[in-house]
Design brief:
With 264 residues, the chain is an alpha+beta fold. It has helices at 59-67, 91-102, 187-194, 210-218, 249-257; strands at residues 2-4, 15-16, 27-31, 35-40, 72-73, 82-88, 107-115, 122-125, 150-161, 171-180, 220-221, 225-233, 240-244.
Length: 264
């Protein structure tokens, strides 16, 4: 679906996604006696790390305090990514689900807003060299071979703004649904950059002209990537579980400006 957007007015007010001084309250998306899942906002670390010396709040501690018991993180979401974050409520369940993540029996679905018109569907099968932290991984060998990595993707919408940017006469966007089949660090971000359709707001792999334009035109600054849903077979009840996060008001404002009809 392609739309030409004729409104060329540019909003000048911008607001970065930041975690407020007041203690955040995370929306609980799912909870039973074995699991709790929350909607992690962009800008929030999952847990403490060497990179967080100036941070006050972390998803793990916030969830623990909200429900009044210790929680065990089952997977990671990059700090700038929002969406479904799942915790176990016991070591035994965490162990079982850890194996499920390793065995790739858990289906993760993401949505990304990308540069350009990516109109195809398929699988990105592109090996990625392990991404190391200068401090956290200082003792890890840098000579490892690239690891296999696959991401299934589906183009849902495209749109154009008739505003010249750089050498191009218009600004183009795509909404892409993604289902990673492996779990490499920054896999989706790196795979889309490999296709030359980087995610809007990605300061590591993105477009240094598109990103500031997006901030100015849409009025906020963030990585436009959301962990939209998580699906798995409950290890105790054996029932199918689907946990979904909604697009927040900033995502909704983008959909409105681009005339896209997207279910929340």
């Amino acid at each position: 679906m392609t739309n030409e957007i004729m409104n060329t007015d540019i909003e000048e007010t911008t607001t970065d996604i930041i975690i407020p001084d007041e203690k955040p309250f995370l929306k609980i998306l799912y909870q039973d006696e074995y699991f709790v899942a929350v909607d992690k906002p962009a800008g929030l670390f999952v847990h403490r790390s060497y990179m967080d010396k100036d941070e006050i709040y972390f998803a793990l501690q916030l969830v623990r305090d909200q429900i009044g018991q210790y929680v065990y993180p089952l997977h990671r979401i990059d700090r700038p990514t929002s969406g479904v974050l799942l915790f176990a409520l016991s070591k035994d369940v965490a162990r079982v689900m850890g194996q499920a993540f390793t065995d790739r029996t858990i289906q993760k679905t993401y949505y990304a807003l990308t540069r350009g018109h990516l109109v195809s569907n398929g699988i990105i099968d592109y090996a990625l060299k392990e991404k190391l932290d200068k401090l956290g991984d200082k003792d890890v060998s840098t000579n490892k071979e690239p690891q296999q990595a696959q991401t299934v993707y589906q183009s849902l919408h495209t749109a154009s703004l008739p505003i010249a940017l750089g050498k191009f006469p218009s600004v183009r966007y795509s909404l892409i649904k993604l289902m990673p089949q492996t779990g490499r660090r920054h896999q989706i971000r790196r795979h889309l950059a490999h296709l030359r359709h980087p995610i809007i707001g990605d300061i590591n792999y993105g477009d240094n002209k598109q990103n500031p334009f997006f901030t100015t035109h849409f009025g906020f600054k963030r990585l436009m990537l959301i962990a939209k849903s998580l699906a798995f077979i409950h290890p105790i009840s054996k029932k199918d579980v689907l946990i979904e996060a909604s697009f927040d008001h900033q995502w909704q404002s983008v959909f409105e400006k681009l005339s896209w009809q997207v279910e929340s």
